[in-house]
Amino acid sequence: MLPRILVTGGSGFIGRHVVAAVREARGDTPPPVRLVLRDPASLPPGGGPYDGTPPADVVRADLTDPTSLRGVCAGVDIVLHCASHIGDDERLTEAVNDHGTRALVEEATRAGVARFVYVSTAAVYGRGPFTGALPGELPLAPASPTSRARAAAERHVLDAGGVVLRPHLVLGAGDRWVVPGLVTLMGRLSAGLKDRTARHSVVDVRALGRAVVAAGLSERDLAGVHHVNHPDPVGSSELLDTVADRLGLRLPGAPLDIEEARTRLAGQPRALHHLGMLAVDHWFADGGFWAGAGVDPGAGFARELAEHAAWYRQFLDTPAR
Fold first, then answer.
1. Which one of 79, 181, 247, 312 has the fewest CB atoms closer than 10 angstroms to its CB?
2. Domain boundaries, given as residue ranges, for the chain
């Protein structure tokens, strides 16, 4: 009998790819999927994320309203929790990520769900440098309301014996943060960065979707924390140069060193924050997760960005070259 899977955040960036990965996992007989959505109208036409196939079941519920979650896990074997709130509204972030996750975990426990997988973030570690860090080696030091609330969510999941996945930089169709942020930074600098070898963990959202599904379906006991990034980190200069090349960006200035870049960004705190992240290692080793889960981590940053370039150009309105 096929396992019954519940996915939260199925209309979001990561969740859509998780739903697609569920459908690919078993070929002609994919497991039945139940989507829990705050707004079912957020699904694209046809209901499916990219293939037009309607999901088996859509349930309306809101993580900020625990009473709306009652019964959503009935008859479910696996929960893949991809929903989160990222933003400046601290109360909403806490309500969704912390309290909402706790309520969902309690509901899953009540329903006898066999496995609960939560998609978190490496941002729960705070600011680097982190060099080749394995799960369990770093203390949690979340520096923003969003990462603090997601660290709290992790605790609810782990206390219930669940699985926590921590990607770092996630790229691909639907990304409105990572590559767009790099494009904005280069636009403000009018240049790339010179000889920056600080390394960063990156994962293609399609590979992350496969990882989430594998963590749910695996016959192995995967309870605990796992890093889910491509095994090969990417240097800061390579990140920026590849984005500029694949998206055809025109950068009239010569590459800058970090101090020159900081001077040029004076008075722009958000841009300085992004620059500071690029200046030091944020490299999180996977500890054998991909091999253990039997999942392909993807082709690597340069090739994957090329595959997503058309989507990014459309989203960012940048010309093809």
1. 181
2. 5-174+204-229+285-298
Is a pLDDT exceeding 70 seen at residue 49?
Answer: no
Start-to-end Cα distance in the chain: 50
Q: State the amino acid at position 157 in one-letter form.
A: V
Write the CA distances from 50 to 20, 89, 147, 161, 304, integer angstroms: 7, 30, 29, 32, 18
- What pTM was computed for the model? 0.94
Inform me whether the pLDDT recorded for 233 exceeds 50: yes
Mean pLDDT of 214-229: 95
Q: Is the CB of residue 140 less than 8 Å from the CB of residue 125?
A: yes
CATH no. for 5-174+204-229+285-298:
3.40.50.720
Q: What backbone phi and psi angles, to 5 degrees, belong to 156?
A: -60, -45
Q: Is the peptide bond before 31 cis (omega within 30 degrees of 0)?
A: no
pLDDT tens digits for range 303-321: 999 999 999 998 887 554 4
| CA separation for the pair 289, 165 (Å, rounded) | 10
Q: What percent of the chain has pLDDT over 90?
A: 82
SS3 318: coil
**How far is 176 from 166, CA to CA, in rounded Å?**
18
- Cβ–Cβ contacts within 10 Å for residue 208, how many? 28
Alpha carbon of 201 to those of 37, 92, 165, 207: distances in Å?
30, 28, 14, 13
What are the CA-CA distances from residue 45 to residues 9, 42, 177, 205, 259 (Å)? 17, 9, 25, 21, 48
Q: Out of 31-40, 61-70, 156-165, which region has the weakest mean confidence (pLDDT)? A: 31-40
What is the arithmetic mean of pLDDT over 46-75?
78
Separation in Å, CA 304 to CA 107, 204, 299: 37, 7, 6
CA 17, chain centre distance (Å): 10
